[in-house]
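Everyone, describe these structure tokens:
***
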Amino acid sequence: MPKVGKCMCEECHHNKSFACTAENIEVRSCGDLQVKSADGTACNTFKLKE
């Protein structure tokens, strides 16, 4: 499985120097479920940094 090349969410536990360290990620539709751009998606693997 390909690795995530870049993560710009500085608040995520899996973000280490803008690289995602999660073993895998899950991306879901969000909002009205009419995904037409990246704004209509969300990373379900997100975990808040402590």
Summary: The radius of gyration is 12 Å. The first strand starts at residue 15 and ends at 16.
